[in-house]
Design goal:
Distance between the termini: 31 Å
Shape: globular
Strand order of the largest sheet: 3-4-5
Keywords: Cell projection, Cilium, Flagellum
InterPro entries: SwrD-like
Helix content: 25-40%
Radius of gyration: 12 Å
Protein name: Flagellar FlbD family protein
Strand content: 25-35%
Structural class: alpha+beta
Length: 74
């Protein structure tokens, strides 16, 4: 679970397992596997970092965000 902030400053907890896509439109929009969309204050990379840490904590991945970003850059 990751803590995020809606545009109206309300904090909430999201089960990161349901994240399908993260985009910036310019606000960060998270698309969930059930079709819902959530707009948050955090930047795209912050959501990715939080989700990746959650995945590591539950043993789904051992990759870190820096490795992912470096491989995308070149």
């Amino acid at each position: 679970m990751i803590e995020l902030t809606r545009l109206n400053n309300d904090k909430f907890i999201l089960n990161a397992l349901y994240i399908e896509q993260i985009q910036a439109f310019p606000d960060t929009t998270i698309s969930l596997t059930n079709g819902k969309k959530i707009v948050v204050q955090e930047k795209e990379c912050e959501v990715l970092e939080k989700a990746n840490l959650f995945y590591q904590n539950i043993g789904l991945t051992s990759l870190n965000v820096k490795s992912i970003q470096q491989s995308e850059e070149g």
